[in-house]
# Entry
Amino acid sequence: MTAIEIQGLTKRYGPDTVVDDLSFTVTPGRVTGFLGPNGAGKSTTMRMITGLAEPTRGSLTIGGRRYRDLPVPLTEVGALLDAGAVHGARTARDHLHALAASNALPRRRVDEVLERTGLTAVAGKRAGGFSLGMRQRLGIAAALLGDPSVLIFDEPVNGLDPEGIRWIRDLLRSLSREGRAVLVSSHLMSEMAQTADHLVVIGRGRLIADTGMNEFLDSSGEGTVLVRTPEHDTLARHLTAAGATVREAPQPGLLVTGLTSEEIGKLAAYHGVALSELTPQRASLEDAFMALTEDSVDYQGAPA
Ligand SMILES: Nc1ncnc2c1ncn2[C@@H]1O[C@H](COP(=O)(O)OP(=O)(O)OP(=O)(O)O)[C@@H](O)[C@H]1O
# Structure
């Protein structure tokens, strides 16, 4: 069954349409990356999924039901939307106990989620003194408390150090392997490349792409091939004569478009030119994302 189903979702604030006729689904068993430039409407969409904001129009269901019809929402959908939202004077354990009690969840879940998020040793400490990384873990512990099959994370790696980023990445993957649906937003494309199986890209509140990660990269690739050879000028001449477009690579070498790497290899062999490298270039996720969303960024800086 589809975990999250969004149809024609629209949100207006006064005259501004910040989410505009958005439709996509989030499927169990994979990490869906939710991408878009700043202000694209990601947080607003996530707030609507978790019942914190009311859609102006459109439908939105979790496991086939609207958020407000879920008897105990925490057992269906867990969310990390704002890691700062913790009562600073309480210990981590007390914070989770209070949450468990108000949602009629078994107390043993508290120790289970403390363990899973690596907070057992600091469970008796006041959350007010926690580092950003620890607060993030506590927010995730709260999201996992009801053992939900749908999880939503808004920019979970923002501000974390490399170890914290890796921990979140591994956690998201393991949650999806358990069969849960995981929706994670980010504006860091490189981060998504390492975490998400599927991508939903929005810009100015509208859907731009809904695609598998690999298909996204393939469809955005320019088909450029990096070629290195001691006979640089000779090969460049032959390639141009064969109809290819040839540019200088940043490091000594040629960036060739218009011919496949196989064709370039054959051409070089035919002319007796030795190659030291022949590498198809895949567009980086960052490049692909920039190309896709360039018409929908609100503020564009001048080129550096
Ligand atoms: N409560 C609100 N009232 C008015 N405008 C709002 C409100 N919440 C969000 N917006 C506007 O909606 C637009 C989308 O914001 P949102 O936070 O959803 O984007 P985002 O994709 O999460 O961006 P970011 O990556 O910067 O967090 C922005 O222009 C924002 O100013």
About this structure: The chain has a mean pLDDT of 89. The pocket of adenosine-5'-triphosphate is lined by residues 13, 18, 36, 38-44, 187 (CB under 6 Å). The CA atoms of residues 88 and 129 lie 7 Å apart. The chain has ten helices and 13 strands.
